[in-house]
Amino acid sequence: MAVSDSSTLPGRASRAARSFGAFAAIVACFAAAGIARAHGVAESDQAFIEGATGINIAPYMYLGAKHMVTGYDHLLFLAGVVFFLYRMKDVGIYVTLFAIGHSTTLLVGTIFNIHANPYIVDAIIGLSVAYKAFDNLDGFTTVFGKRPDPKAAVLVFGLFHGFGLATKLQDLTLSQDGLVPNLLAFNVGVELGQFLALAVILIAMNLWRFSPSFQRSAILANAALMCAGFVLVGYQLTGYFTTQGV
Fold it and tell me: What is the Cα–Cα distance from 222 to 224, expressed in whole angstroms?
């Protein structure tokens, strides 16, 4: 009876590992295929943003949360960031750094109308996914003999993630009436969405870590994550070069 009980947890963990692996593969395929346009704003949401006037706290919070939980670039990057973080204190530090960077450029870029080519910004965001996966594979230490500061990297890439959305909002006609409160509400929604998405990612990761094959699977998962990041880079750069003559 004791043997049966002891084998139950690894069995559940193994099934959880397969489920998480299948989920990760689906997400990577969507990202790689370009089906999930990074930082894209749905047409219905565009219509609301361009037609809304005055302060609309709740709708903008909803849109911010929706942006985060449907942003595959954000989710892939966050998954890479927390992949080997086992303490909630460490998770909190890294996620806070990402939130600071994301919030800063989202608000500053939109309010002060700071422009940049969205394809280039989104290519850098794709690079952030590949970068973090390469870091998780200990690639920097192996190839270059030194690992860049991971906290600084998360903060810097957080700046680009926020700026990516700012470039999309700049393409829309935003009402100046209530602009700052609406953007603050949108940003609060982004952080709430990030919290919900991160909770799901951490639960799946913790279940996966019970699997005895976690270390071997982790290498394959990060290799796939890095490939997905480079595909996103190529996808955005292709868009940049094909639109230059238009």
Answer: 5
